[in-house]
What we know:
- The chain is α+β, with helices and mostly antiparallel strands.
- The protein is built from 10 helices and 51 strands.
- About 30% of the residues are buried.
- Helix 5 crosses helix 7 (about 655-670).
- It folds into 7 domains: about 10-40, no CATH class; about 50-170, 2-Layer Sandwich (Copper Amine Oxidase, Chain A, domain 1), CATH 3.30.457; about 180-270, Immunoglobulins (Immunoglobulin-like); about 275-365, Immunoglobulin-like (Sandwich), CATH 2.60.40; about 370-460, Immunoglobulin-like (Sandwich); about 465-555, Sandwich (Immunoglobulin-like); about 565-635 and about 645-720, Lysozyme, CATH 1.10.530.
- Strand 8 (about 115-120) and strand 9 form a beta hairpin.
- The chain is elongated and about 120 Å long.
- The strands form 13 sheets. The chain has a 6-stranded mixed β-sheet, with no helix packed on it. Strands 32, 34, 35, 37, 38 and 39 form a 6-stranded mixed β-sheet that branches. Strands 41, 43, 44, 46, 47 and 48 form a 6-stranded mixed β-sheet that branches.
Amino acid sequence: MIFKLDSSPKLLxxxxxxxxxxxxxxxxxxxxxxxxxxxxxxxxxxxxxVNLIIDGQTITxxxxxxxxxxxxxxxxxVVSETLGAEVTxxxxxxxxxxxxxxxxxxxxxxxxLVDYTIDGLKQYQFSDVQPFIHQDRTFVPLRLISNALGVGxxxxxxxxxxxxxxxxxxxxxxxxxxxxxxxKPNALIPGTTxxxxxxxxxxxxxxxxxxxxxVDPSTGKGLVIAQGSDLSGSYTWxxxxxxxxxxxxxxxxxxxxxxxxxxxxxxVTISISPAVALMVTGVEAGQPATGTVNLSARLNxxxxxxxxxxxxxxxxxxxxxDVQDPxxxxxxxxxxxxxGDVALKVTAYDQKHQAYPGQTVTLAVxxxxxxxxxxxxxxxxxxxxxxxxxxxNFDAQATExxxxxxxTQKEEYLAQIPYGAHVWFPGPAYSGSxxxxxxxxxxxxxxxxxxxxxxxxxxxxxxLLRGAGPDQVITTAVPAKLSALSNFELSGIRxxxxxxxTGKQKIVASLQGSATEFTYTPVPGDDGxxxxxxxxxxxxxxIVETEEVAVMVYTGKIYGPQPIIEKSKFLSMASNLAVYxxxxxxxxxxxxxxxxILETGWGQSVPVDKYTGRLSxxxxxxxxxxxxxxxxxxxxxxxxxxxxxVDAKFRAYYSANESWxxxxxxxxxxxxxxxxxxxxxxxxLGAWALKRAGYATDSKxxxxxxxxxxxxxxxxxxxxxx
Length: 722
């Protein structure tokens, strides 16, 4: 070996200036010259070959048997065919079928679950080394060959020899020390099932979670049906109606990082006999209901939702609820009209909206008549409109809202209506201490009067601005529909904008008479920050003003929500992001994809900055500041009983991937989503858990998610290859 030193001026100058580096270069040169750096050029150490002997015959296989993960692996076809078995390769699903006599074995490349059929009986187990392809040959653990063909095997460590003896029979031996103890092989599962596993010795030290999966034997893919950190704990599973048929039930151990550590599997048949029972609480046994009754459903299958029906047996009066949480409670407060015997029934619905009615339960009801005035509190000073309501538990044909003088007992009718609420804005003529009450006539003609509520009336002129509220942005696209509410008769009204920076006022409208409605559409030059108020004149010439509210006027271009991707491509994008996240966190990919579809309208409505058009890439409408700052968009507020739009900050991201990861963090770390995290592997359970945690106010939010999942078969995104 010849080394040539570079004598370029730059290198010589550098070496001369740095004696340490010069010495190091010399040392390296000498070491190389005398062979001290042999590790760089030495040939890698060779591993002695593994010898294979089948029924006394030495088998030469290329490639040869080897050791992988401390397990001897052998070329499948060579060994199987030498033992008289037929091997069939299926390129479509990368599976291998081995057949010999009454034995059939199906295994899949890079998958752990092995399917045995021996004398017509199905068996399943996990292999600790997955079948793999090496130099175009399928390799499997030697023990798998023994299990598959029922032949004896032995290992001679000194000579590194594998001996296969077909004259010696062998039984199927498990690869892992875990057994699914609560379910027997070939069990028939009609409904609610307990899942539990046991260990002969201690579980693997790094085992962090156990997952129970229901696997389709034709594909080897399964869905998580229960999971937890208690490895030998008991879990309850309610199979779904779509789970019917021959399946494989598995228990699988995983490390904290998601590495598969072992498992057990048994064949089962799901044949659900739907059982729907109504549970009634809040009533003492043998006694009639005198107040609120709590209804819930006890089900033996995983329902999408339930509905309750209550029928008065004598009159046929019926109350039918909308969709309800199948794991929740419906609180029913009976009215007097339901006194007597009622029939209660719950009906459960599956993910395809198929109904499964329960048995009728009869309940006696005997609630006392109740009437109270709502909308005001005792001692309240009324200076704004109040909504008076008769709080009653019986039907009414006439309702009277009454103002009474507590001293003289003189009464004044504020409203006489059949039923419903009445908005009352007391005028300046009303002042001092008064009493409010409600009188109601039931369907039989009997009148009932509530207890009075003592209030204080301000006795002043009051004017309220409506159609604009604090921090509202008034634009040409969304003008302000202004109006005013007064407790006096007015002869005119003006709407005035005062520029915050200069104090200069602009009268945007001046109306005569009692009319107050005016639509203010800003024009160029109006832009800026303002204080807005209404100034009214009473019929006797008094001036009454509303409080001022801060508003912004903007006449520039306003940008609305924009697509993040073509609609036809959004499902693919969302599915890929959801599956990746599911593999990391265990949160249902189907649920995540459905949320993104629902909240962005298939990716076509993503918040942008309304003033600049900058895309937020915010797929889940999370407010605040994100990695890319924030964008300004709209949200809704209410002022003086009228809803209006204000600016709000929404998180901005550099990509959809970043938004997806932030949403995952939002659900995985938020305290109020703790119960969601216990069921997040299941899209149906997770959808209702989100609703219970307050994620969405829409009562049908879970149903909308489940319909998307069912219609587009998103549940397949949650399948795990085993």
